[in-house]
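Lab meeting prep.
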Amino acid sequence: MLVNLTIIDLAVVKLLDLDLDKGMSVLTGETGAGKSILLTALGLALGDRADSGYVRPDCKRAEINLEFDLADAPLAQLWLQEHELDNGLQCLIRRVINHDGRSKAYINNRPATLQALQALSEKLVEIHGQHAHLTLLNSDEQRRLLDVYAKNQPLLEELNACFRQWQQAHKELTALQKAAHDQTEREALLRYQIDELHELDMANFSYAAINEEHGKLANLGQILSTGQSVVDTLYENDQIAAITLLGHSLAELAQIARYAPEINDISSLLAEAKIQTEEAALQLRRFLEAQEADPLRLDAVETQLGIIHQLSRKHHISPDELPAQLAKLEQELDNLTHSSERIEALHNQTGQLSARYQQLAAQLSERRQQGGAKLQQHISAVIKELGMPQGEFLVAVNPQTTDTPKLNGNDKIEFLVTSNPGLPAKALAKVASGGELSRISLAIQVTTANDKTTPTMIFDEVDSGIGGGIAEIVGQKLRRLSHNRQILCVTHLPQVAAQAHWHLFVSKNNQTDITSSTVSLLSDAERINEVARMLGGVNITANTLAHAQEMLLQSTAVSG
């Protein structure tokens, strides 16, 4: 679960260090106080895209730090171990956003990509935004919710893996069939290009070695002239040769060494230098004597380099890549030569994969129908509690007849609802009002949450559009959810706020030029005042305070 959230210089938050606990926590505050920035901070820390607009004015950077206790997050522990980022049962996530829009992310103090953050966050936190009911109208979201509820993920992953294998084989088969029409012309071109490259003796081809040999042959005159000059200087010039001068120096030092014995060490160094100099000069002389001008070889190498550069330009590659290009062309020619066999093999492969896909799709469809029947019963029961006494929720799973595999199976899944008995069920978008859609969405989220392993769930004003006794039921259901996971809920409803174990209040400070928001954990007495404010607005009376206190006492008595 999330145990700490720290925000520095992010939008309206100058500094926030917030400890969180198990159970249900609510965040309340007046409109514009900055409740949403906490969820924005969480989203950024967990991989959302960032820009410079998030940095507080006149600040160099914004920073968000999250600390998680992984005792209730085994999937996150496993992910961290697999990526060698584990740190026991603690997970630290840090996101820094600079004023120029660039950002850096860290997992357990080690740099991480946004993709890594997003992958990890799926196993730590689930955020239900205030527009979740609009997402519910999307057919793919309806399918996803049903598959999550029916625990279809392993079967779905197997089906999609089969689909991707079929897709790849089908793509290759289509390309080969298309290429077969102009195969003869392409084969002739490939053979010509391969023969050209084979003239370079690709088995022993080394562009670096050819270049080195050319440099040596082309500059042999300078090599001989300079080399002989060095030999003369080191060894063969009796008057000024380095070896002669070193010999004189050794003789002179020998004369004075009897007066200063420590000079013997210096003499030893010079004697070694004389030996090394002589050896170097002799090796250089032997090298020069072995060199012989070879104009014919130079012409041959230059011709070879010309061919290499010509072929490099022709194939739009560097000279070093010519061997790889030859292998590529030979592979293509081999594929064309054996295309009929490959086409037949691919026909068989796509047929087998398609048959396997249809088997998996049928199994998935059956599981969806079974899961849909259970899901519609559960959600129908919940929406009745949420103020739709005649409401019925239906999950329609309609298998589509098709021979072509596709992602996520053959089923068309649609959520339907009817508000009155006797009337036919219709799609959510056509029947449900905004308030009804919010309640249905909340019912689905509450129902499917029990089947998830995410230890922390965040609800951002998902209770909009409801009130009164329905709001109290929503609060009770959220509190019930928090028995085995951490719930964080942004709400404007006192009935929901009264159900929380912990009440966090977001307030805005306008005393300085730059607005800032702070968050504080309310005491029991402060909770009464805040719930009263939510009930009564500006003018809080004794009756309002009494009502607020009664709501808090009732929630404790009912929920424990």
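Slide two material, second protein:
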Amino acid sequence: MVLRPFAFVAVCALLQQSGLSSVKQLPDKPRPFRSRMHASPDWRDQSIYFVMTDRFFDGDPANNQRGYSTFEKANPHGAHGGDFRGLIRKLDYIKGLGATAIWVTPVLQNYEAYHGYATCNFLEIEPRLGGLKDLREFVAEAHARGMYVILDVVVNHQADLIYPKDGTTGYREEGREQDWYHRGRKERVMPLPVEFQDLRLFHNHGDIDRWDDYGATPCHTETGDFRGLDDFKTELPEVRDAMVRIYRYLIAQTDVDGFRVDTAKHVNSEFWQAWCPAIHEYAASIGKRQFFLFGEFWHGDDARVGACTGTRGGGKFLFDGMLHFPMWNTFKEVFREGMEPEAITRRMQFAKEYHDDLLNVLFFDNHDMPRFLNGMGTDGWARLKAALGFLYTARGIPCLYYGTEQGFSGGEDPWNREDMCGANGDHFNPRHELYEWVAKLNKLRREAEPLRRGEFVARWGESAGPGVYAFSRVTPTEEILVAFNTSGETRTATNVPLERKLSPPGAILVDALGSKEAVQVDAGRAQVDLTLPAYGVRVYRRR
């Protein structure tokens, strides 16, 4: 039977209301809930703001007690009430930063996990966050403001619902006998879809004890439980096909624009060679031809991480880009630890390892590590502003973790998952020095094409400790010279070379960040001398 559009929507609504239970209820290629879906953008032009939804803003207290997470705002491990309606109410705050895309933590129903990374029901939107209706409204409101939405998704594991009968959690290569358990709860919570209630779909080896043992049989990295979470046998066709159907359906039901994929490092590459093309193909079929897939592969080796992008690792097209963990290492070393900034040049030499490094997501704060400001001295804000200057001018898509623009300084999770509106007051201050600095950087990036798409050319770098680093972002029609000082004192860089055609001798270059500082290109050569104050940042454009 062929359903007309309105009839199909009604059927989908009925299924959602009555409760989906099986992936067999999901069409292989689901029809979208609206006749025209929002087109995805050119991601090279975007700027991402990453939000842990539960810790952002409580827009609807009525849903705080729903679901399986205990609402306990004083408990750092409890749910704190942030939801989709809270995101809607703060969209103008996010837009004011200059962000054009919002990445939110997982939205599927979780079991005792405020953060979203322990799904128990892959067929339902978390009721504590507001459910499907509020999620759709959030996406629509973001689109109405010219912004896009990225959902965090997980295929590697589900919630911790399985226990080993021998009571141990350490990795055992031969596996162990398992059963379902519920940690003292009276209700019997089983995973959905029902297909995931088959213990044979899980590895059942115990917790990961080797985090980088690729090539081993079995590979503990890929077959162990991530911090106790039940690890799927993603090598099985039925698991792969279920995850394709689930996440195609999520796109069809929400109109989102991209997925950030959690724990990609812990899933076998053959899975990605099937799943990524299937998601891309479906998204394109409903008008989202640039649906964005980027993965989390926590490793410092560019070759390892880059092999997950495009066809770099062979086979079918995988992720568009990755969270740039190798560059995160360099961020930390240069801006926090005082390593010579020339390390950036060394890192950029590995850009060729990626399908397109312009599609890598750059960051230096996230929910899994202490924030940049954690443990910093009195110069912490100045160092942070220099790091932000690089984040928004380097090659790649900049991503700001919520609260960084308000000076948050939390340590290991959950302390780096602070409430934007909590016991210490409201932290949605658009006049905050860091908020205004980020907004200025985003505005400049939006107005200057070289900062979004230009080639990266290293120009000058201190190689013996903290100091000046300068690089150009170059398109065929413009060169922008970026310079920053990682030292706590004024430093000078001399004879910094430029592109003669774009920055000819005698040209005047003016700092576009508002310092009113100008430099003149040498009358005989295409080069300049630069003097920067402690932790200063300059972005020079030709007058």
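Talking points for slide two:
DSSP finds 13 helices and 22 strands in the chain.
The chain has three domains: 46-159+236-450, 160-233, 454-542.
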